[in-house]
Amino acid sequence: MLKEESKRYVIFILFLLLIVLSFFVLKDYLASLVVGALIAYLLFPLHDRLAKILKSKNLAGIILSLSSATLLLLFLAILIPPLVLQAGQLYSNTEQIVSSQIEELKECPDKDSNDLKCRLSKKISAFIDQKGVKDKLADTTKQVSGFLARSLMTIIGSIATFIISILIVLFSVFYFLDNGVEIKNTILDLLPIKTSYKDKVLKKIEDTINAIVVGNVTTAFLQGLAGGVIFSILGVPSSLFWGFLIFLFAFVPAIGSTIIWIPAAVILILKGSLTKGIVLIAYSTIVLGSIDNILKPKLIGNRINLSSFMIFLAVLGGLKLFGILGLIFGPLVLALLSTFIQIYREETISQTEF
Does the global pTM surpass 0.70? Predict the structure, then answer.
């Protein structure tokens, strides 16, 4: 009996060791595999219908894999060139713009101006070291814009890595479409819990993924699109680039796109474009706010069953631990923890009841 139990422990330890080793083998391609798995998950219903029509699961998988890869490449080919161009223009123009604004502020003490910038500058200078703030602001602005531009250039410059990632996504979509059901059943069989609890865990995973992919990605895309449009209408340079940043920051709960459009509105007002600044504030509050506060809750509903504060912490912690994949893994880990706590409570209560 003891010998059999020892064998089980050895097998279990070897199993864990192989999982860890497999992670290190695949970690550089984990992002591509996760993207492929998510695309396959979204395509599963269409794959089943197409497989019935074609009477071939493999052929349906090949068609959908190639179609999704083609659409992804087409989307990137349309988006990336102007995005890179605008990022470069923003970086090259930042120093000139900041310098001109600082020169205008320097002239304020020597002239009687009703300009809003000058009035604010005179009031602020009575309390703080204005020159130090200006220098720090100029330096920080150039550093941030330079970092964003260089990061984007680095991403685009890694052509070989990018092509490999696309190929991995392509093959992983086909693999998960073809073997997804078997993989899911194998993982569920390994869980040492009741079937009813397995169903609950599976539903929580599906709900969390749907909430993140359908809810967050859709609303982030709409916010980025709406933000880019208003920036373009108001004549803000590099509107596509700022729309892209709004899309990225829309994934961060509590902060969201406000971290982009509020500073932009303040800058417009300080530059003398009071009307444009007010329009941007009103538009962003109504349109972007409605997408974030009305549309997103309707798409997500109560699927994740986590408070906004916990989702915020999950996203930040996930990004720190997993990188970009933390947008998914962070909330998923906490959602699963909540589910397992519920399962543990139910088991504990059932065992203590007489």
Answer: no
